[in-house]
């Protein structure tokens, strides 16, 4: 009987931390004791491990077994430590030599029969293993495709505890996971049944969506019920440019932590589109918990967060969006540490102009002026300042529905969007900027230069619309995108006029 050390990993927010599972088997009162700042589910591992080992035909000796998960300063949670604890105990008993685990990281949950169950967060853990210099990672069989997305490490998928320790003994080697020659690294692409060609009319709304996606701008759709706001917003994923491989890996890591990846096609090759119900909480939106986990904002990272019925959200919930929209990340402080979650997303929101939805048509609107003001006041000025584009979605005319005309498809719009995005990528190469929506003040001085006529136009708009410094810069960013869509090197008056038109809702509805 002796001491053994098996390496595993724990998730802290979205980061993986190396954990050493140390086991000592010695003379003393028969006990199986675990220490190391453990959550309740990790403490329960002792019963799962003892039963799984017994069901593999191995009897634990009547000895004092102490298991320590180090370092003790990191909180351990989840059931992914079951397999490394079991292997550490078996190595201490001399079932196999500890050196066979040299350079190997182990994760996995055990069933009472010894079967190894699927766990969450395999992708960030395997990437951490590569960074730490490990050459092999033993994972549950169901997770081997996910682990195989990472280059530079051998992934061994085990389905049973007995299979794992026989592999380490050298008696029955498990073949490392091999990627398929064709289709490897490609995620499952969902068949989309929606298209912008489904929408009749609303050309101005579709134009605003194209401008927003082309520059990565936030978008607010305002109009009466049934005007197609939600229908239009839900088709935005069909015109989003595809993510790069690195972006796909970053998105997949977040979904891996939340246990939301497909076993067969783990790599997410489409930009996420998260539609949030108006009853959501602040913690569900930004993330939270004793050990914080990503929320809907982080799940929308690299894609779109859609808030339908915006005015029905509680105001404190909307206010937590303000910092992520500016900083593109979420920072949470807890007693056990600080956590940073990615939050680079495009916000799309839709709302009615009043409780009945018919304002400003006073012939149909049944709301009092007080009701309208109370309804609109749920959206604060600082929040509105962060919306780059607002467009009205008017009621659709009968003629547009009774005599439909061929409309542009999503593929045609997407082709133009990708061309504009590629132009921005070339312009900002060598910087941290990826699109016009992320332009900083210094960069705007270089890429949003205005002539005399454009300067006078902006001066008049600043005074008449009562713009803030933030909204002034947002107009310039949107104008830069419109110029790119027109193939113009410089921003011209028509580009600024269209961008200003997307801010005129402040005066019309909020009177400010």
Which strand order spans the largest sheet, edge to edge or round the barrel? Answer: 11-12-15-10-16
Helix percent reads 25-40%
Radius of gyration, CA atoms, in whole angstroms = 28 Å
DSSP helical segment count: 22
Biggest sheet statistics: 5 strands, parallel
Shape: elongated
Low-confidence regions = 182-189
Q: Briefly, what CATH class of the largest domain?
A: Alpha Beta
Mean pLDDT: 90
What is the CATH architecture descriptor of the largest domain?
Answer: 3-Layer(aba) Sandwich
State the total count of DSSP E strands: 16
What proportion of the residues form beta strands (DSSP E)? 15-25%
- The CATH superfamily of the largest domain appears as P-loop containing nucleotide triphosphate hydrolases
Overall number of domains: 3
N- to C-terminal separation? Answer: 77 Å
The structure class reads alpha/beta
CATH fold assignment of the largest domain: Rossmann fold
Describe this structure in words.
With 512 residues, the protein is of the alpha/beta class. It folds into 3 domains: 3-169, Ribosomal Protein S5, domain 2 (2-Layer Sandwich), CATH 3.30.230; 185-352 and 382-425, P-loop containing nucleotide triphosphate hydrolases (Rossmann fold, 3-Layer(aba) Sandwich); 436-512, no CATH class. It is built from 22 helices and 16 strands. It has helices at residues 40-43, 45-54, 82-92, 122-131, 144-147, 161-169, 203-215, 229-233, 245-257, 282-286, 296-299, 315-319, 322-327, 369-376, 381-385, 398-402, 410-427, 441-447, 452-464, 469-485, 493-501, 505-510; strands at 3-12, 15-26, 31-35, 64-70, 104-106, 109-110, 116-117, 136-140, 154-158, 219-222, 273-276, 304-307, 329-334, 337-342, 346-351, 389-392. It has a 5-stranded parallel β-sheet. Strands 1-2-4-3 form a 4-stranded mixed β-sheet. Helix 7 (203-215) runs parallel beside helix 17 and helix 19 (452-464) packs parallel to helix 21. The longest helix has 18 residues, at 410-427.
